[in-house]
Amino acid sequence: MTLSLIQFVALHNIASQDKTQLYSAGFHGILAVLEAIGPTGPNIPNVLSNLKSGFGALAGTTDDAPGNRAWVWAFKTLSCAASEVLRAERIKAPLSAKKDEAVQQFLSAAVQFDGAELESLTLLNPSLSTLFNKARAALGPMILKATTGMDLEVTTLDERFSRALRTGSNRTLCEDPEYFRTLEDGLTGLAGESARRDGHWARHAHWISHQFTDAPTFSPDEDEIIPLESVYLPSRCFWHDTIKIEDEDGEEKWQTYAHVADLHKTAVDWLSCDAQHDPLCVVTGGPGSGKSSFARAFAHEVIQGGTFRVLFIQLQHMTLSGSLHDDIVRYVDRRDTATGKHGSPGIAGNPFDWRKTDEKPVLMIFDGLDELSTKEEDGERNARELLLALKLLLSPLNADGTPIRAMVLGRNLACQGAMETANIPLNTMLNIAPIAEMTSATCSMSSKNVKEVKDPDSLMALDQRAEYWRKWATLKWFDRLC
């Protein structure tokens, strides 16, 4: 079932001055997107605020009907999607002198919504709608004209724009939930219960991504405004594997090897494994090693991939009562909010029940194990209880139904002891490496065992400190200019 955008937008019934105002707000909104993109990336909250104020004069008038709200949703979604794609291009190449003209031409081509249709799933997955086809065709020429770059990466441009449309719709609906309630309730109601659940997952996904793309990095004095995404460096990791080998005398012995790899790639590889045999991954590191930063970055990465449902659990807000299943259900229900402008840290429903009829596998990320206790002995006990409970929870769930996996982040010693107690193989524990150059000692191997450290991609020699501080210096310098 579909609903016509002419019926919703009814541009033919809007007074000419209001129609001009709509397009004027649109032009300045997209221009704000372009001009907000610097080394820190696009300032999306400011962009949405600009667009919202641009359309504000229509709010509360006789013309502020579902049709106008549909138009506002479509344009905000388009603006956010364009900014997501432009961000990478803008960082690679400065703006050109023709950026205003480029925006005008893009807007004229892209905002031709008359006669298009909003289908029941359009809000949840706008990339499947023909509504944005003209924008797809106009996006490449705008990038080439608005920036001085030459390489559009055409082979991935359409995929990136589709992904950005989904993100843009989530962001738009979460930013002003009351304004779009009429559209969301109407269209989601047509699609049924599964669409309603998709909406709750989307709201949670937007909250997760916001922690990485928009929320400021940790700042004790709360002065920092730079988002984590702008300074994040993909981490390296190492893990140990003990196997039986034959020595020079033909005697069997156990040999421990350390493996060094990119943490994100290793985690992605784990997601591709059989959840029945390898449902649990533990990421460890000391205080300040970047565990939480990786958790947010990886969760955002998985969400962008679109293959998994991601449930992000901040353990400092959850009480372990002895039944992890019930604890998780209570946690997501208690933390759910339908009006949070950055999405919802919870979910309005039982994710374990939902997965029974859902084709997408679930990834649960448990962050903040360190924060459950300040005492070392309590830390190991908490880790032991959580990992053992997860092992017992995941095993029967993965025996029947959609796969479900869990990633836990905590401190090395506490997690190692807990894994041994729970009989979880230590080769599933990924240790976050420091950003300085790595040695065999970094991998908890003596200097005599250099040959037992496997580094196929030669990552150990990398010293990421200079790149990290260069990013900070660039961002601080740019902020002063602004």
From TrEMBL:
Gene3D superfamilies: P-loop containing nucleotide triphosphate hydrolases (3.40.50.300)
Domain NACHT: 281-389
InterPro entries named among the record's database cross-references: NACHT_NTPase (IPR007111), P-loop_NTPase (IPR027417)
Pfam families according to UniProt: NACHT
Name under which the protein is recorded: NACHT domain-containing protein
Organism: Sulfitobacter brevis
